[in-house]
C-alpha cells in the first residue's frame, strides 16, 4: 500500500526504471528493408544493481548460426509484432514465462548479412528467472553489464556491398566470442545506456 492507502501501480516501477527512462529519452531508428525477413530478439536485463543480460549459445545441431551467441529470438510469424515475436521465441527457446517479463520498448532496428531485419525488444526480468533449455539452445549465458563494459572490445570496420562502411564489434567474455548482430546491439546498450 502507498502512504495514501492505494495499491501501487505496476506502471510506476516501469516509469522509474533507469532503462525505461533512457529508452524514452532517445529516438528509435527503424529500418525499411522490405526484401529482408522480419525477426525480433529479446534483450532481457535482470532487475539487479548490475543487471545481467540473457544470452544463449545456439545448438551445434541447428541449420544456421550453429554455436553462435545470440539473444533469444527469431523470425516473426504472420501478423506478429516484434514484441509478440520476441516473447514467443524466448518462451520457446529458454522457457521464459512472458508473464515474468516487463517490456520497456524497442531498440534501433539492425540487419544481418544473411537477410534478416531484426527489431531488438528491451525488457526487464526478475533477478533469477526460471529458465529451461530447448533443443535449439546449448547453454544460457548471463554476463553482467559491468563485466561486459570492463572488457577490451575488439573493433573493425567492414564495407557493405553498396560501399557503406559499418563498425563490427567482438566481446571476448569468459572463453566465449560475442560478435555479429548480438555484439552490435550490446555495444549500443553498453555505450549509450544508463
TrEMBL record:
Top-level lineage group: Bacteria
One Pfam family it belongs to: NUDIX
Domain Nudix hydrolase: 36-165
Keyword set, alphabetical order: Hydrolase, Magnesium, Manganese, Metal-binding
UniProt-listed PROSITE patterns: NUDIX, NUDIX_BOX
Cofactor dependence: Mn(2+); Mg(2+)
InterPro entries registered for this protein in UniProt: CoAse (IPR045121), NUDIX_hydrolase-like_dom_sf (IPR015797), NUDIX_hydrolase_CS (IPR020084), NUDIX_hydrolase_dom (IPR000086)
One example GO MF annotation: metal ion binding
Protein name as catalogued: 8-oxo-dGTP pyrophosphatase MutT (NUDIX family)
Native source species: Deinococcus budaensis
